[in-house]
Amino acid sequence: AQSVTQPDIHITVSEGASLELRCNYSYGATPYLFWYVQSPGQGLQLLLKYFSGDTLVQGIKGFEAEFKRSQSSFNLRKPSVHWSDAAEYFCAAGGDSSYKLIFGSGTRLLVRP
Amino acid sequence: DAGVIQSPRHEVTEMGQEVTLRCKPISGHNSLFWYRQTMMRGLELLIYFNNNVPIDDSGMPEDRFSAKMPNASFSTLKIQPSEPRDSAVYFCASLSSRALLGIVFGQGTRLTVV
């Protein structure tokens, strides 16, 4: 069955520290992969996406993600977290008929001053 | 572009009442989605329209839910009659065929059924 797993429900980091949010997928083929961010009371905003090619993709707000086929992972990283990054982050996967994105359960990021 | 516009942002209604949620997708986007978000179930796709035609409504929980897209710039999600378990945040999202799968979400409607 197709699935997206975000193993960390909550992560707390200090402002200025580096961040890595984990995402693993189970899919029949290499899916299209996405990271979205949701601030409280807001909709989901696309941070970055991977379709093919370079496995390290750059997104908005200084985020990047690396696709690792061997590990079925698409982890999100940021070298230095800002307090404004506190939000919930969702990993998602889709295929050719990728209107039907499969979302992970989300990771809530808390930023310690 | 103003993005995907949803109304109302918040809705409180009594059990048994009809609720209508509204969505205006981004101009030029030919795909529209309704999602529901709850703590228990996360994000669920309810229905997907392409060129105003419902393509996949397998996520619609039951007959009390219905969705329409009478034209390219407007869609509604109706719940009749509403029940407390329908309380959730409902998101509308749209997608352009030229945007290589970057679904754009609205800000959501928080529905509370009491």
Number of strands of chain B: 11
Number of strands of chain A: 12
Order of helices and strands of chain A: EEEEEEEEEEEE
Shape, per Cα inertia axes of chain B:
globular
The tally of helices of chain A reads 0
Terminal Cα separation of chain A, in Å?
Answer: 41 Å
SSE succession of chain B: EEEEEEEEEEE
Instruction: State the helix count of chain B.
Output: 0
Q: Could you tell me the strand content of chain A as a percent range?
A: over 45%
DSSP helix fraction of chain B = under 10%
Report the major sheet of chain A: 6 strands, mixed
Computed Rg of chain A: 13 Å
* Oligomeric state: heterodimer
Q: What integer is the average pLDDT of chain B?
A: 93
The span between the termini of chain B is: 36 Å
Give the largest chain-chain interface (CB within 8 Å): A-B, 21 and 22 residues
**Strand residue percentage of chain B:** over 45%
Question: Compute the gyration radius of chain B: what is it?
Answer: 13 Å
Q: Helix- and strand-based class of chain B? A: mainly beta
Please, could you describe this protein's structure?
The complex is a heterodimer of chains A (113) and B (114). With 113 residues, chain A is an all-beta fold. In chain A, strands 2, 5, 6, 10, 11 and 12 form a six-stranded mixed β-sheet that branches. Chain A has a four-stranded antiparallel β-sheet with strand order 3-9-8-7, with no helix packed on it. The mean pLDDT of chain A is 92. Chain A is 0% helix and 51% strand. Chain B starts with a strand and ends with a strand. Chain B has 114 residues and is mostly beta strands. The relative contact order of chain B is 0.34. The radius of gyration of chain B is 13 Å and the shape is globular. Chain B is 0% helix and 54% strand. Chain B has no helices and eleven strands. In chain B, strands 2, 4, 5, 6, 9, 10 and 11 form a seven-stranded mixed β-sheet that branches. In chain B, strands 1-3-8-7 form a four-stranded antiparallel β-sheet, with no helix packed on it.
